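hiii, so i know i said id send this last week but things got crazy w the move. better late than never?? heres the sequnce for the chain we talked about at the cafe, plus the structure i predicted for it. fair warning i was half asleep when i ran it
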Amino acid sequence: MKAGSSLWSRAYSGILFGFVITFVVNVSLRAQAPESPSAAVRKPRAQDLNPPSAPRGLIAEVANCHQVELRWIAPAEGTGARLKAYVVRRSDGGESTIIAGRTSFSDANRVSPSTGLTYTVSAVDAGGNLSAASNAVTVTTPPCAGDEQGVGDFEGNLEVSIEDYPDGKSRTLHVLQTNKERLPIQFAGEAPGHLSTGAPVHIKGRLLDGILVVNSGDTDLETLAMAVSSSTSTTTSTSITNNGQFAVNTFGEQTTLVMLVNFQNDAANRPWTFGQVQTTFGTVSNFYLENSYQQTWLTTDVIGWYVLPLDNSTCDSVSSVATYANAAATSAGVNLSAYAHIVYVMPWVNCTWVGMANVSGPKVWINQQLTLGVAAHEIGHNLGLNHAHSWVCNNTGDGSGTMTGPYCFGLEYGDGLDTMGWSKDGPHFSPFAKEFLGWLNYGNSPPITTVQTNGTYTLAPYEMGGSTPKAIKILKSINPTTGFKTWYYVEYRQAIGFDSYLATINPGLMNSSNILNGVLVRTGSLDDNSNTSYLLDMTPATYQLYTQDPALDVGNTFSDPAAGVTITTQWVNGSSAGVSVTLSQPCVRANPAITVSPSSQSGQPGASVSYTVSVTNKDGNNCGPSTFSLQASLPAGWTGAYSVPALTISPAGSATATLTITSAIASAVSAYSVGVTATSTADTATASASYSVVPSLVTSVSTDQSTYAPGSTITITDVTKTSTGAPIANANVSVTVTKPNGAVVTQSATSDASGTVRVTLKLSKQKDPKGIYQVLATAASGSISAKASTTFTVQ
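okay and structure toks below
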């Protein structure tokens, strides 16, 4: 053990979990760091004990027999940073905690049909103070009409674990830890790859037989900015030193507690002594010390054996191992919170996996195989690493023979030169993994050279310390949707340190001559997540599913025309390798930019309006012109036509087209979204504008009489309304009177609140002829107008 800690052992006999056993407890006694003099006299900050005011206006509505919808009004504290969470309580004991940014909640957590339920909501502030309850509301769920299911809101912290199987397979498990329970998660589709243990999340899902079923990991799972808890305990932050979103600290001492456990039906099975376990984890510590270039190591305490009230004949028992083992250790006086990693070592349990671990979490389970390879691999998961894959290409299809070649696919553990791959010999982690962990290209860690110009780059042996570059990285591609960058990583391995086994490795597993006399090439995207590392086979002519000769030998060249990258191994001499890189300018495609002008227009039902659609080609300068076809997404019954069906545009160039849209005659008065899309063979962009259908105008004009004598005064009345009958004030109305002799008289006025305009016309006895007079009224409001006419006679 390291200096500063000691290990003491004492035999105890007693009853543990109902069984009389004798076991040895080993407890690490760690000295507490002394406080600074200023800390000894510093006065504690006064705690805020004032609870927030209660939420109000709680409303509950039954969605179906298994789902209740709640809404409420936030207290005044909800407008600032003081409020942390809401606690929703149900009369049958159900309770949920959600982040304070929400004032609605879908309850589908074991809601029973034909049941009366009373709900209240309380607020929790940043100090952990709980408000009084809101008003109580009661609902009764109906009986189920059929196979109804409730979709509800669930919040808590995620736990992600990976089971590692010896046959090259693995399984990833997701669990949501709420304030009240642990809910296994089942994704209907593929689970998101970026999730890590400890991430606070909000999930929309269905609770079926105790399993939280989530339709989409992309749309139904949201990562929250802060953890949700109604607890009044202080929240501590995690030291983030790498690129993991919720990564643990990957530097310095990694305090590790190893618990030796066995089962009530196999209590005498103790295949390892404490000394053997300490030796194994001492080797694991040295592995991490070398991999991190002397920056990270393990300090390990070993305790046990603990006989658990479980049966090792079923793998289901493992779900309770941590609970019982932690209870036993706590009873023995062990402070579990002092450890960054807790490893549960089991002689045998009827599981086909040999190791399981949290991703970016503290727990490891080892089944039978207490070896360097298994232990280092599982601790790697704790530090945030996923598996090291290989990219396999062949001409015969996949391993099942279900596809014809050429065919390429990722092999889960395919990288045999990374401990997170299939090797059990403890090879160094890849440059991608070390950059993720911060052990390369971060702070005082050795550098990785980012290649930006043509040239020959010198690499020192990967395993050696010092300030010389341990790898080079070359940009491969940029995802046009996310902007995530994928890189080529190139490194030079030698039989040094934990990689010494490469000198004598079984040639049926790996070709040491190829590996030690060439360079390794991988791809990876740190922007995305730690599950994107792929070892490439630089000798495809000698195909193996698990490549035995992956290195690029001296004089050989790898070329990626799409990326504009050419890599050639110039020399290797045991102390360095020379790699030449040639960068051409590839055609880098990107989604175009598209805009619509104006952003909004209005018209009566059936009116046509025009928009200008502008498209800009965002492809790289080395790309040729692209042709973008234009489409419009319109409400049902509407029509749209472009002035041209497509635009051909050079990189960085722009072009426009006119889109004319006619709304349906039967369109209701409302604002409608109009979508426009520009699509080339590789890229797509969309934009939208608004078309507001406004009521049409209806205007009517009349005179106070139908016939008049010469010299009379005529009163003309115009009334303007919408098509729905509402009067329009401030409409501009023009009244034109055409006399029998063709003379024209025009008057204008603005409608009053009733939509009415009145004008008068004084006839001249001598000048105005007898006959029929034509009256035309034109009313306009904004861009909308209407006309009406009438006649009168002068006798």
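btw The longest strand covers residues 152-164. thought thatd interest u
miss u guys!!
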